[in-house]
Specification:
The complex is a heterodimer of chains A (about 260) and B (about 260). Chain A is an all-alpha fold and about 260 residues long. Chain A has 11 helices and no strands. By secondary structure, chain B is mainly alpha-helical. Chain B is elongated. The chains are: A mainly alpha (about 260), B mainly alpha (about 260). Chain A: It is a multi-pass membrane protein.
Chain lengths: ~260, ~260
């Protein structure tokens, strides 16, 4: 298997290099509009960006809003999901409300959030919380419906109260589903955070950096931010997938979808 | 399937919706909250803005046609283009070892780029207008479709392919009769994700750069401090989201019914 992996890695690297070379050649040959920078210019700009104080501050501003928003969403949505998932009456009653609120595209709340939160950093965090809460809530509830009833009954027959059952059986066995919710949430946080920054650049962030570079007609810098945003997104993805696999190895072993 | 009459089966489940609306109405009226108008005012604004037109136009006003038509046209065009391209490219990648090995890192990078960061790029490339919004929708939508199609096409049961080889099916028939049907549950999983993404990208691209459409209407309401109109747009987008999801699930159930039948 390692030989195949090496081969795939080499082919992948060749693909990346080939893509960059083709993009550069297409640019040099004048096949794309003039506003498009050459690939080499984009990469050079991207390599220089981390040296800039402002860019570092903006990346941190975006990540801070994403992480604090995610943390608040976990603190709110997971207990809410536990409550709704363990009390069938509440679950039945709130489901229509959830089904109605969830399809509202979170970015459509941006113009309103800008009014409600005069500080655009708060608006960003609030929208990240709103967006992340849905996948977390839904996945927590879904995970709870998958809990082994035998385990719950066992604990109950040993005289544990309902809270102990939730904390000792339901939460651990729903945890892998919650983790999936977190992974889904993470991929949406960046979209929402950057969208707020584009529309309300007052609070800084990568989107604000981009709109500044765009209005200065520095296409190379706009593209360079895209490169970094992609790398950050990729890193977050790899990190969360690896952490999930590591922490929940027992779950994969149990359900048998290890590959 | 238990065939109970609809009414007693549904009404106890929906009791919270009217209660929530009523609570909001009372709270908003007593608190006089500027940014949270009572639902009754939102509905009135929604009605006078879009749905108070003549009967022969299904009650749609001129404004409704001017706002909704361009947005919906872009939504469906962008979604359609992205789905077609995503399925095509995904199936090709899934069936070719060499191709998928070559582009896999690029695909993972591409789908990790938050599509919102590309809105300024498309704004520079195309200026404000429909091409820029289409590009944003296509980019936002294509990745889940592509990745799921790739996954589905890669893991087609070997026996199906070999049976096709025994019967000497042509390449075209192998694609349309074996690979696409076998990959379709996965493909539809990607398409389902893409519906809500398309709506998100439509809104964000119109908020950043457009001179017409639902997003533009929001910006106008924002600049005129017309909070009920802002809420009316949010409600409309929510209803649109529900309608699109329901329609999609219906189509999926129809097209994939053979699959559930075959798998039991």
């Amino acid at each position: 298997m390692t030989g195949g992996r090496l081969e795939r890695g080499l082919l992948g690297a060749a693909g990346v290099v080939g893509f960059l070379a083709i993009a550069e050649l297409v640019g040099r040959a004048g096949l794309v509009p003039d506003v498009m920078p050459y690939m080499s210019e984009v990469l050079a700009a991207a390599a220089l960006l981390p040296m800039e104080e402002q860019f570092r501050a903006d990346v941190l501003a975006t990540l801070a809003a994403c992480l604090s928003g995610l943390a608040i969403a976990i603190a709110v949505a997971v207990p809410a999901g536990l409550l709704l998932g363990t009390v069938p009456f509440l679950e039945r009653s709130t489901r229509p409300l959830v089904e109605f609120l969830r399809p509202i595209p979170s970015v459509s709340l941006i113009p309103l959030a800008v009014f409600v939160f005069p500080d655009s950093h708060d608006a960003k965090t609030a929208l990240v919380v709103y967006t992340c809460s849905w996948p977390l809530l839904i996945n927590t509830m879904y995970g709870l419906s998958d809990v082994d009833p035998l385990a719950k009954d066992t604990l109950r027959s040993f005289g544990f109260g309902p809270l102990a059952v939730v904390l000792r059986v339901s939460l651990p066995s729903a945890a892998p589903f919650i983790a999936t919710g977190v992974r889904i949430a993470v991929s949406v946080t960046l979209i929402v955070a950057v969208s707020v920054e584009l529309l309300a650049p007052g609070g800084g962030g990568m989107g604000a950096f981009q709109s500044l570079a765009g209005s200065a007609n520095r296409a190379d810098r706009v593209f360079a931010v895209v490169v970094w945003a992609g790398l950050i997104g990729l890193a977050a993805n790899v990190l969360f997938t690896a952490a999930e696999r590591r922490v929940f190895r027992w779950h994969q072993a149990r359900t048998g979808d290890a590959a | 399937m238990n065939r109970q009459p609809l009414w007693p089966r549904y009404w106890p489940r929906y009791w919270l919706l009217p209660v929530a609306v009523l609570a909001w109405e009372l709270a908003a009226r007593s608190a006089q909250a500027a940014y949270f108008p009572p639902p009754s005012r939102i509905v009135v604004r929604l009605h006078e803005m879009w749905f108070s037109g003549p009967i022969w136009r299904a009650f749609l006003t001129d404004e409704a046609i001017a706002d909704l038509l361009p947005s919906l046209a872009r939504l469906f065009t962008g979604w359609g283009v992205a789905c077609a391209a995503g399925v095509l490219a995904g199936v090709a990648l899934g069936r070719s070892y060499l191709l998928s090995a070559l582009v896999e890192p690029l695909v993972h990078f591409g789908r990790s780029v938050p599509p919102a960061t590309l809105v300024p790029v498309f704004l520079l490339l195309f200026k404000i207008g429909t091409p820029m919004e289409l590009a944003a929708i296509v980019y936002g939508v294509i990745w889940p479709v592509l990745i799921n199609s790739m996954d589905g096409a890669r893991h087609v049961d070997r026996q199906y392919i070999e049976t096709g080889a025994v019967y000497r099916l042509s390449a075209w028939h192998r694609l349309t009769r074996i690979i696409l049907p076998a990959a379709s549950p996965k493909i539809f999983a990607g398409l389902r994700l893409s519906v809500s993404l398309a709506l998100i990208m439509m809104v964000i691209s119109e908020l950043v750069g457009s001179s017409e459409g639902i997003g533009h209407r929001m910006l106008e309401a924002q600049s005129q401090f017309d909070i009920p109109a802002l809420w009316a747009v949010i409600v409309l987008l929510g209803l649109l989201g529900i309608a699109l999801n329901t329609a999609f699930l219906g189509v999926e159930r129809l097209l994939l019914s053979w699959h559930r039948g075959a798998r039991g």
